[in-house]
Design a protein that fits this description.
The chain is α+β, with helices and mostly antiparallel strands. Helix content is 26%, strand content 36%. It is built from four helices and eight strands; from the N terminus they run αβββαββαβαββ. The strands form two sheets. A four-stranded antiparallel beta sheet has the order 1-2-8-7. Strands 4-5-3-6 form a four-stranded antiparallel beta sheet. The two termini are 21 Å apart.
Length: 241
């Protein structure tokens, strides 16, 4: 049916008859190739808290000192949540650029990124509030499972099952019988893009950023937490004559 073929191609599933220049007297192999997708939702066991603290100044050292002072204040404050100073992973980045509204003057911005992995996230919303009060540059939450490899394996199996389901539909459409799996390729991408430090857009080179509200990007649902694992595969199935 012409309309069915158009629909199947539109969904990204294709039926291929591969013919790689067979030798005389041999029949070219016939296969069905499909792409399978899976999205797995699972209960998280770890909350990853990422906070960026920025300090600005006329020199790189001055900006670093301001950022370090604000960072130590936050680390000390967050002891209330049971997070010890050694529990934080720290990363420092320094940027040099023209001061807003004064392009001829150069300022420096130092951003300290704090990362903590928590197995108890009952106080997640309260931590979000405290970070907001302390006027950090950004706050990010994300959830993880204790065994992400096992979750990804489950997702891969579901993706392969989805690929077979599509192949069976194509085989029925082509009035042929689907054979065994003859090849499979993992198409799943890497983890999400790495976030760059958030720098104040209104702070001057002396660190005066009182007029700029902090940027908060809460990427995790703290009320109904879940970890999403995505898998995608391309599978090749033999066609039985």
């Amino acid at each position: 049916m012409k309309s069915s073929k158009i629909l199947l191609l539109a969904t990204g599933v294709a039926l291929f008859c591969l013919a790689p220049s067979p030798t005389l007297g041999q029949n070219p192999p016939r296969e069905i190739v499909t792409v399978g997708h899976a999205v797995l939702k699972s209960k998280p066991s770890i909350l990853v808290l990422e906070i960026a603290v920025t300090g600005a100044g006329p020199t790189a050292e001055d900006a670093r000192t301001r950022s370090a002072s604000k960072t130590e204040a936050l680390v000390s404050d967050f002891r209330r949540f049971g997070i010890k100073p050694d529990d934080w992973e720290r990363n420092l980045s320094v940027a040099r650029r023209p001061v807003p509204d004064e392009p001829k003057r150069i300022g420096f911005w130092a951003t300290t990124t704090l990362i903590a992995r928590l197995d108890d996230y009952a106080a997640g919303l309260e931590m979000f509030d405290r970070a907001t009060i302390m006027e950090v540059s950004s706050v990010h939450f994300r959830f993880e499972t204790s065994d992400p490899q096992a979750e990804y394996e489950k997702a891969l199996k579901r993706a392969l099952a989805d690929a077979r389901f599509k192949a069976e539909a194509l085989a029925a459409e082509g009035n042929v019988k689907l054979g065994t799996l003859v090849g499979c390729e993992e198409l799943s991408g890497s983890e999400g893009p790495v976030r760059q430090p958030v720098l104040p857009g209104e702070a001057d080179a002396h660190g005066n950023s009182d007029n700029e509200p902090p940027i908060h990007q809460q990427v995790a649902d703290l009320k109904t937490p879940a970890v999403t694992t995505v898998a995608e595969v391309r599978a090749r199935f033999a066609i039985i004559q």
